[in-house]
């Protein structure tokens, strides 16, 4: 396969197809360099004379045993500091004499080294560098534990290093299964587990022995396996996190989280959360809440003191059907400019609703509605919900997302020319698929590091994640899976002429190993077709890797989207109905409603609003007192 990986024709024996942009996949040569320069120049030209909004950012620091930890808004990276010492890393651990961190490659690639430091008299000095490692670390019994890496993005071994034996690195376990990756998890009782996962099954092994693997860690660790059930938790709720030490449980159900207090003979619901709950297993007595209705706040246990959250000035609503959706409205709800719909729906990863306002505030200020849809495949409901978005089921999640988009457009009286979809990474695959398969559904796509060339990727095993993600996206070994993927893969459904009516903004990075930059570049080239390109923009960064976004790039992209909607025919003509403009497909010609249909739609809209209103009233967090909390969100790794 390696010899013909870049050929135009991909022939699997049971199916063959041609891709005349396959030359980009090598990512080499003067033609490739010129392509990047041309696209970046076009992007910068489009920004000229636009007013770039400013984000009001605030501190997201927290303290842990004398360490100050600052989290990045758009990246897994953290900064750990103590006195004059600072370390940028993805994960870190410490005891009284050692600090250890998993540090990313300085050029932005997801390649890691373990950096070990000695702590003595409040002075931190470098002790050792261990290369070819993974993004997680732990200290157990005075030894440093970490993952070994034998290839990009593959973490296949568990290793340790003892400061008392500086020249020896011990290997405790090596996986030969190319479809699974390893991780390390710290328990609240001081335990550390090695975890192996193939996106469907997880197994745990308690360090330091790694003699056996089981489906569940011991309960007192506080590490939550899939499908954990406890008395008092209903079947409709999935346990997401817990602490027996601090006495609390967090569940999720269709995007809404519930925080329970564990009492002697029962568990008691304390608060319903429209957003995210985070904590550090080394300090489970401090729970950080990020809720779209309030500024971020913290609950301090055991007194259960709540730092006073300040209500946001933007009205919020929740729709349970067709798919769960959280909606944030601009202050002037009578003069809405457009709607931005965000989604992810992969890997069982939660959608992260709590940061919706902080990440999109300039759009709200400009009169946009911003909403987040929970799509099957995400970690927003149950294990069954996750499986419903994997492999052969993915087409059903795409269709469900389409239904949700249509319902939101109807609810808020938006036509395609005022509707934008946003997705990053696997979320880019979701939003581009639904837009390409349904011409005229939306007017614009905003993509960051988007996974869009899925059919070529899952049939090219030399790429870093292809084999590893077999159970998430499919395998070249399964003709049924490949053919099913071909039915919705974005690149294979773009017309030869391109899609001139679709506005597209994309960003990528030359150091991205998860979604190689040729994918979004091929996508832009294809949707542009024979056009000049002013409606299809992509910027290629260097040195940021898979997490290209920062506050500056987000502000620039918001300026471009706002300029686009101001110039769109639907906006200029002030027509709010779904009638045909040059940016609409023929399917919008016959959308005038009969009186019967209008009444039915009105009843449905009223029902939705009533449900959302009831939830907004009933789910207000109890104000339990405490000092005023500073603005900004905090993010801690579980």
From TrEMBL:
SUPFAM superfamilies in alphabetical order: alpha/beta-Hydrolases (SSF53474)
Record-level GO BP terms: proteolysis
A GO term for molecular function: serine-type endopeptidase activity
Residue stretches of biased makeup (Basic residues): 595-617, 626-638
Region named Disordered: 572-638
InterPro entries named among the record's database cross-references: AB_hydrolase_fold, Peptidase_S9_cat, Peptidase_S9A, Serine_Peptidase_S9A
Family the UniProt entry places it in: Belongs to the peptidase S9A family.
PANTHER family from the UniProt entry: PROLYL ENDOPEPTIDASE-LIKE, PROTEASE FAMILY S9A OLIGOPEPTIDASE
Protein name (database record): Peptidase S9 prolyl oligopeptidase catalytic domain-containing protein
Originating organism: viral metagenome
């Amino acid at each position: 396969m390696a010899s013909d990986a870049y050929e135009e024709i991909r022939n699997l024996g049971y199916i063959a197809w041609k891709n005349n942009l396959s030359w980009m996949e090598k990512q080499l040569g003067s033609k490739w360099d010129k392509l990047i320069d041309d696209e970046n120049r076009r992007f910068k030209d489009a920004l000229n004379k636009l007013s770039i909004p400013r984000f009001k950012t605030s501190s997201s620091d927290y303290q842990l045993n004398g360490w100050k930890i600052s989290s990045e808004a758009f990246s897994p990276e953290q900064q750990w500091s103590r006195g004059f010492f600072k370390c940028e890393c993805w994960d870190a651990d410490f005891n009284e004499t050692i600090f250890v961190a998993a540090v990313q490659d300085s050029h932005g690639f997801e390649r890691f080294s373990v950096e070990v430091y000695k702590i003595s008299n409040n002075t931190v000095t470098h002790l050792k560098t261990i290369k070819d490692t993974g993004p997680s670390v732990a200290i157990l019994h005075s030894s440093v534990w970490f993952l070994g890496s034998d290839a990009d993005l593959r973490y296949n071994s568990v290793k340790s290093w003892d400061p008392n034996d500086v020249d020896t690195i011990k290997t405790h376990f090596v996986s030969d299964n190319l479809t699974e990756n390893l991780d390390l998890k710290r328990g609240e009782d001081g335990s550390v587990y090695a975890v192996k996962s193939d996106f469907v099954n997880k197994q745990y092994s308690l360090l330091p022995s790694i003699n056996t693997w089981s489906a569940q860690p011991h309960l007192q660790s506080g590490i939550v396996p899939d499908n954990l059930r406890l008395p008092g938790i209903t079947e409709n709720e999935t346990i997401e996190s817990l602490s027996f030490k601090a006495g609390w449980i967090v569940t999720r159900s269709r995007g809404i989280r519930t925080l329970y207090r564990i009492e002697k003979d029962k568990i008691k619901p304390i608060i319903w959360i429209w957003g995210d709950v985070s904590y550090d297993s080394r300090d489970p007595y401090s729970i950080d809440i990020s809720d779209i209705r309030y500024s971020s706040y913290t609950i301090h246990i055991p007194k259960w003191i709540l730092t006073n959250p300040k209500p946001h000035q933007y009205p919020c609503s929740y729709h349970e059907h067709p798919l769960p959706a959280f909606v944030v409205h601009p202050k002037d709800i009578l003069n809405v400019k457009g709607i931005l719909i965000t989604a992810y729906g992969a890997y069982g990863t939660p959608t992260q609703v709590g940061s919706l306002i902080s990440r999109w505030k300039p759009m709200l200020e400009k009169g946009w509605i911003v909403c987040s849809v929970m799509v099957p495949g995400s970690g927003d409901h149950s294990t069954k919900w996750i499986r419903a978005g994997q492999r052969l089921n993915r087409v059903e999640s795409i269709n469900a997302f389409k239904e949700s988009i249509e319902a939101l457009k109807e609810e808020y009286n938006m036509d395609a020319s005022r509707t934008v979809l946003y997705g990053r990474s696997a979320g880019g695959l979701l939003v581009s698929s639904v837009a390409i398969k349904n011409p005229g559904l939306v007017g614009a796509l905003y993509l960051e590091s988007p996974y869009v060339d899925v059919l070529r990727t899952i049939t090219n095993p030399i790429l870093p994640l292809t084999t590893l993600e077999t159970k998430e996206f499919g395998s070249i070994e399964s003709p049924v899976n490949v053919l099913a993927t071909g039915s919705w893969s974005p690149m294979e459904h773009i017309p030869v002429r391109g899609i001139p009516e679709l506005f597209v903004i994309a960003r990528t990075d030359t150091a991205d190993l998860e979604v190689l930059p040729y994918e979004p570049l091929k996508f832009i080239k294809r949707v542009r077709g024979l056009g000049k390109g002013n409606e299809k923009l992509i910027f290629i960064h260097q040195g940021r890797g898979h997490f290209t976004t920062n506050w500056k790039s987000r502000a620039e992209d918001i300026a471009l989207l706002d300029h686009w909607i101001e110039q769109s025919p639907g906006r200029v003509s002030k027509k709010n109905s779904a009638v045909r403009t040059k940016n609409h497909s023929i399917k919008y010609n016959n959308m005038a409603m009969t009186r019967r249909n209008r009444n039915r739609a009105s009843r449905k809209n009223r029902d939705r609003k009533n449900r959302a209103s009831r939830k907004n009233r009933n789910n207000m967090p109890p104000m339990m007192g405490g000092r005023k909390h500073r603005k900004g969100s905090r993010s801690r790794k579980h």
